[in-house]
Design brief:
The radius of gyration is 16 Å and the shape is globular. By secondary structure, it is mostly helical. The protein is 48% helix and 0% strand. The termini are far apart.
Length: 88
């Protein structure tokens, strides 16, 4: 039996709701966390992926959040290939 299909919009909404709840719990905040519309992008190559990860990694600092509140998840395989991610 095939799993029930869910629209991408529903999956993203569920993920965003879960993430927002966890972020608000850890930061002791409340209110809107996400913009109303999503912007998706196809990653074209390694350089593009690297730039996107750097951009994402700077978001907590731009929002004034301490680094320990929003830990960055980076695949260990990427670091093993020599990619270094240092977000402050």
């Amino acid at each position: 039996m095939l799993p029930k299909e869910h629209p991408l919009e529903t999956i993203i909404g569920s993920w965003k709701q879960h993430a927002a709840t966890r972020i608000h719990q850890r930061a002791g905040t409340s209110g809107n966390l996400w913009q109303d519309e999503a912007f998706d992008r196809i990653i074209r190559d390694e350089e593009h992926l690297y730039r996107v990860l750097q951009y994402i990694g700077r978001n907590p600092q731009k929002a004034g959040l301490p680094p320990d509140i929003c830990p960055l998840w980076v695949r260990p395989e990427w670091e093993a290939l020599g990619w270094r991610f240092e977000f402050t």
